[in-house]
Protein: Histone deacetylase
Organism: Naumovozyma castellii
Amino acid sequence: MVKHLPLTLNHRWKTKESATVLLQTNKQFTQSDTTQKRNMTAVKEEPELKKQKITDVSERPVIVPPRDAELSYTPLKTGLCYDVRMRYHAKIFTSYFEYIDPHPEDPRRIYRIYKILAENGLIKDPTLSGIEDIGDLMLKIPVRDATEEEILEVHSKEHYDFIEKTSTMNREELLKATEKGDSVYFNNDSFASAKLPVGGSIEACKAVVEGRVKNSLAVVRPPGHHAEPQAAGGFCLFSNVAIAAKNILKNYPESVRRIMILDWDIHHGNGTQKAFYDDDRVLYISLHRFELGKYYPGTINGQYDQTGEGKGEGFNCNITWPVGGVGDAEYIWAFEQVVMPMAREFQPDLVIISSGFDAADGDSIGQCHVTPSCYGHMTHMLKSLAKGNLCVVLEGGYNLDAIARSALSVAKILIGEPPDELPDPLRDPKPEAIEIIDKVIRLQSKYWKCFKRRYGNAGCNFKDEINESLISKNFPLQQAIREQQLNTLSQDFKFATLPLLKPELPKDTVLCSPNVYQSKTVIICAHDTPEIWAKRDVIQGTIDPSSSIIVDSTLDFIKWANEKKYGVIDINIPQNLFEQENYSAIVTSQEVLTYIWDNYLKYFPNVEKVAFIGIGDAYSGIVHLLGHRDTRSVVKSVINFIAQKQLRALVPLVDESLSDWYFKNSLVFSDKSHTYWGDKENKKPRKKYGRLLRCETDGINNIVEERFEEATDFILDSFEEWSDSE
Amino acid sequence: MVKHLPLTLNHRWKTKESATVLLQTNKQFTQSDTTQKRNMTAVKEEPELKKQKITDVSERPVIVPPRDAELSYTPLKTGLCYDVRMRYHAKIFTSYFEYIDPHPEDPRRIYRIYKILAENGLIKDPTLSGIEDIGDLMLKIPVRDATEEEILEVHSKEHYDFIEKTSTMNREELLKATEKGDSVYFNNDSFASAKLPVGGSIEACKAVVEGRVKNSLAVVRPPGHHAEPQAAGGFCLFSNVAIAAKNILKNYPESVRRIMILDWDIHHGNGTQKAFYDDDRVLYISLHRFELGKYYPGTINGQYDQTGEGKGEGFNCNITWPVGGVGDAEYIWAFEQVVMPMAREFQPDLVIISSGFDAADGDSIGQCHVTPSCYGHMTHMLKSLAKGNLCVVLEGGYNLDAIARSALSVAKILIGEPPDELPDPLRDPKPEAIEIIDKVIRLQSKYWKCFKRRYGNAGCNFKDEINESLISKNFPLQQAIREQQLNTLSQDFKFATLPLLKPELPKDTVLCSPNVYQSKTVIICAHDTPEIWAKRDVIQGTIDPSSSIIVDSTLDFIKWANEKKYGVIDINIPQNLFEQENYSAIVTSQEVLTYIWDNYLKYFPNVEKVAFIGIGDAYSGIVHLLGHRDTRSVVKSVINFIAQKQLRALVPLVDESLSDWYFKNSLVFSDKSHTYWGDKENKKPRKKYGRLLRCETDGINNIVEERFEEATDFILDSFEEWSDSE
């Protein structure tokens, strides 16, 4: 990087100069003043000082001829690429509707960005026509045609020739080509217009690399990141950014060894990814909507598990939003957790932003909510890389106001201003976003040690990597936990297992108290495998069993029921079974509960009253049973603790009045932060969910602790016409 | 914040103007050109457009009178506070040595910073005497005396009067006061000098808050953050930053409601903390060496668990380095993990950096290694807060070169330049640092939801919070795991428990094969409770047992020994016991192994050859036994898998030659990344550690898998004079 070289030079020269100046200054001074003598003498004695050939000065300025002309530190300007000729490429209108509702990749996109920069004084161009001298803050970078040779660095000759041919096609041919293409359009100016953004992007990067500007913004169209080596697509003809990156790597092998391309366009940059998929010199990171490949460009290439191949393996990172509607919180989270750590470890010499603004709030194609200040914050973070060698190249973005405001916010960061505050910094990222980012980190931790640190160095501690062989060799934790429950219940309460005709389930799925067959009163607990509270070793990432506990919320109820001498059936529904991919805890709980009812309870001679206690997902089995059998003759009450789990509605197959009955005779406790409540303080629950109550706390264990008495009292009341003990 | 108001105003005015200009431009154009007609008409039709009262323009500039004079966007300068008068406060010399080796809080500190700014052209002051006009980049902020009223906002009248009195003390009184103070000194100029940094800090903050500068740097001394309301200390007389913060909160109640003070001086800012300990308007975050309170100021107030009190609870955060020698990696990690998330959630209106540079590389008091570029990166990150309203106030820092270089790097960020690259971005933070930061996050997650997200929302999932009551109610995981091992071994291999006379240990600590009493050959496995590979719920932070497995590395060896029909003793040493605070796994393993030897093995009638297999910390018991008993008659080989665990040396109490014997007859497998190896590729291990070998991988389970054959072959060889099966 030669960037600051000239400056450093005359600054070195200056240092000596000023040093001598000071020496004199000080001599004169020490003869005059007295107050300072102590310090001054000290200073003259102080050895370090001689070494440095400089010394302290007086507070009284000594007049010396000002000779600091060469000394001024003039920060470099920000480069700007803009050329009205890029507006010639436009869609040929074939219907009146296209007048009303023009194609989103609209020639005015670049103009509106240029205009807002002028309106805010970042550039001075009263005519808004793209003049040469645009003021003190930004430097005009002339746009030029890219040469065929440059374009062929990424694209095939066939593709180049095809685009070239469009300039001589007649209207019909153009319309046919437009028809055939994958959401692209052509007119006779397309070829001419398409060579300009390529040339512009190259020049914008060059200016940064050569230190003529501190960073740059290329306001160009048509965009490039969907253009693959062989084909145009997604409004893109040539792959602007990819070609620029290849060009820089080729022409500045010494100063630029690694380039990072950060693509925050809401679509996956399939073209750019393909151009460097096997190249370890370019780290491509893209944040985009994916939605199981349904979102454009709609191929699995955009999936988060596409991490590059050959030498390029580990140098491709897709952060795939499973839903639309993401915004600042999700992008900041992604930058904090993935982009910045990875980038710092990669140590790029140049950072290029493939800057589509279609994730911006207000863009009807992206349907996301990234605010201008969030674009500012992301730019600010990326500016801290590569000594600030940053080039921003426009890609998509179709709401003319949104792209203008977003680009302005980015430009302000480039010229050195701080970012605005985020409008809503307190919002949590969506759970779906946290989950996908977690997946990305775990996958990429194969290649990046910064992520190992986040997840510990332990070779493997993630389910994804726990394969059959490991399981066969080792032991599922949930089984150990259930065995421990069996031990406790059989030792303390003489519980025994109750046989099930479901071979895939562990034998100890259902346990019962010895008195259950004779009991008048039976409590049936259906629960998930209890939670574990564990401490992860921050270095190794493993769980230390000696500092972890099994938090078994059912035990309290069983103790209580045992004191009351009730009969008890305890049902444990595993959330997953390693052996079975298609296993569903919900279905299983429904089958098991129905089975217990049909094959046991119905035949218990003395049973007169039953209470259900459901904990976690397992509770869906209870709701299902109540809807499918008429249990009202014996079932007196139903208690469910669902924490964060999904609500289950009672679907009355037997009798419509079941819903009312369920509402009257049930308590359903949910976490304070259960999604059902949203922000509304007092939302009125639907009857079909039972009497749904919002707890003060979160977490199964906490809400059970909070509502244990309320629950048991409710059960006792429902039994009250009977004596409480038998 | 009025900062950009004037600009925004005349920009609004401008927008209308230019809109009309464009309208004309375009009309003219659409009559002329043809190529563009399509687009242009479209543009005129397009409804959104009318709404906006603007439209597209031609690529041919239309000459209009330039009227953008008012429009220029001139970024604000960076404020600079410097006044030579602050150099009057100096130590009275009492011995010749103080000439040779002056007091570290040396008057030249501020001068050297001012000088390097001038030498690099950030300011223009050839005389280096603190002139008014210092050029285009920085704006001189005049320093003034703080008033008594201002100082009393933080300090007691007694303290103020005492400092005032120093101006009239005679030499003896000054020396006595210096003597009595907690590392402070006084001369007759101390009072005068000490009022200036206070006034300077106030003015530096004011200039930012009033939008006269974009941010500011106060190059002031004496420093302030150790000065408590009642007393001077640590070179500090008045609490500059605290007084400035109080002043701003008082005088700008509308625009400044919350202030964040980030103190990266290597010492804890006890004075600043005390001033706002019960105040929720000020978030004080300090990164400092603590070392169990031994490092200056040496009180527990600097401990990480001091989080504020009353209204201020949760608004104080101490990040305490347990060791010296920390540097960029640790500071960047702390900023990423703690400082920035907390700051973003706090949403300050002003950020003040208590900017000591004594953590800088080269500072002999701080003994840490923060580089200038790291100070740049930290400043850059903080600049993204509070709309960039940032004020940097000098505190400590005693290596004149280091503080100058560091301050220059900070100043460049302030004027808008990007930070330099970190010299060693790949270094991992020290484990001690990762651990303390983990502690801080867990503690602060009580108050900050950004941390809950990092650790899941589950009410509690950390050992710290797992108390007796929880344990009594619930079930230790390690016990469940051992019970599962017992089940497996007793079912598959008919193992039984071997009694121990250690009531505190679980009954199933030692298991043995049925044939062990008669066996000629016995394998003794001593291991820690097996690891768990688990997936943490990224939202809830709980462990899902159904997707977790117990990775039991011993099982392979037991199966192998069983096939060989060897006798087997399996010893499980828990790492911790909830019930016992003073429990030590190391001591226990030593006691148990010795006990087994003295009370069982010695009396086995047929035993002729024994092999030990140690896994994890439990292996120390084996090494201990070999050193304290002469077992060589029967023990043929020793295999240890220690992964990351600490090396244990054999201390031969019986016979010196034991070490050689141990080295010949043992294999000790360690992780690839075991600290012992450091960076050295082929470090020659010490004999006392046995034959220490470095594996290709990390993690108990992986190294056992890697070396299982080598281990068993080694045992068989050591048995070879005997038949391999009996």
User: Anything to note?
Assistant: Residues 64 and 142 of chain B are 44 Å apart (CA to CA). Chain B touches chain A through 166 residues (CB under 8 Å). Chain B is about 40% helix and 15% strand.
